[in-house]
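Lab notebook, bench 4. We co-purified these components, and the gel suggests they stay together. Before we commit to crystallization screens, I want a quick structural picture of the whole thing.
Request: model the full complex, all chains together.
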Amino acid sequence: MGALGKPIILMVAMYVFLKFILPNIPGSAPLPSSLIFLYLLLTAAGIVIFETLSGESKDAFWGPMERFLTGENLGGLQALRYGVLVLFPLLVGWQTYGSTASSDAPPAESRTIHPAPPGEYTGLSNPVPKTPENIMQGKGFYAAFCSPCHGGNFDGKGPAARGYNPPPANFADPTTIAMLQESYLFWRIKKGGVGLPIEGAPWKSAMPRWELELPDEWIWKIIMGEYDGAHQSPRTWE
Amino acid sequence: MKRVNHVMKRVLRGALAAIAALIIAEASLSFAQESVAVKATIVTGGLPVDDPNAAIWSSAMPATFPMSPQVHWPNRIQEVTVKDVSVRALHDGNQVAFLLEYSDPSEDQDDAAAFEFMVGDKKAHFAHGQPMLQVEGGPVNIWFWKHKEGKAVDMTAKGFGTLKPQTHQDVKAKGVYSNGSWKIVFSRSLTTDHPEEDVQITPGEFISIAFAVWDGRKDAVGELVEKGSQKAVSSWWYFRADAPPDYSGYMYAAIAAALALGFQFVLIRKLKKGQ
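Here is the predicted assembly.
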């Protein structure tokens, strides 16, 4: 098994590196399984080419495999050989079933939570002065209009939230309003769920189109109240 | 030889156990997804369209969906009676029947419930297919049942204020109240002659579905608390009528396994001969 040992160790090491070590390197991300498979395939091809360069290395490489498959002088490994011979066809059958059987799962939905706003809603600054009175007024409007879904604690868990899918945004979560500009919130509150582009799945959103009910000034005050209440700050370009 | 047989048996047993474990894992995964979709199970010998208590309903898997007070559009409501609905469905290849169940402490003449479906290929907003600003939407088909009317109304909407009964009424409904809960059966043929206003149900295909419930209770001065847009609503979920069983996957798997086995056999024979 000597000539086979190294390639096997190399393949395992490659897999461990791609699967467990690479994603943990700063600035990296987990690899999709198809990419890992492709890399392993390339590694295997490289090994086969390397091992079959000379007649000698070729025999040393294929020899153990041949002996394993024919079962000659295997001794204790005989059980493993039968295991491989039984499992291989089963695995092929299983894979084939998995790739041909019709799926029972509903259509996959990829919804962009924060799609790009229309041009006229980028870079607007809040025209309402940030005074304690205005913030307090904003919180009052928030309590009246927004808290039924987004929650009195700004956590998206208001009493009306449970039936809505997608769920109302949790403003205390650092991935919501903390990474958005006030201008973006102004757009989302004004146009509501129906104002989303197609990648935002507007047909599912229960967010009201508040421009039909609230003046712009109230919306700007609500934005102030939201950031203050959720202990977040708007994203800026500085 | 005996020893080899013994080893073979152990290997086989191990492989079977591993496959069983995989199948069980898959089954429990699909069970966990149930609350995303209602599935109509295929039955033969007629659907219980008039009987919410028929034993055959137990052959359909119930799916539970959370409900919210309707706060998307005025007039809003901040609190509603019904917090969840449970839905089952059956079909026989010609007709589909849904069983909607929910608890409601009192039986009132104005108790009502509705199903909503997207119609056609265009997405429709769950609030009566109201217009979207950046996406062209389609209509919705609404099946509305009210206790005091004792029947279903087949309706169409494309935006607020456009809801109206269709000229062709294709839906039946029957509700039974007992022990603090409503059981309502809605039924219709899978397809109709009016695809532009009625949802068309093709077995195997997922369709968007939503629910609404009105508790017909009255407040201290005799006014209805839940009426019109003041109701319990759900978001869009999925409905699918099961397709007839398809065993071709097993056949392909068997062929592939047999080919792999044959390949092994030929390879080993060649190797043995070569030596």
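Chain B is about 20% helix and 30% strand. Worth comparing against the SEC data before the next meeting. Chain B touches chain A through 70 residues (CB under 8 Å).
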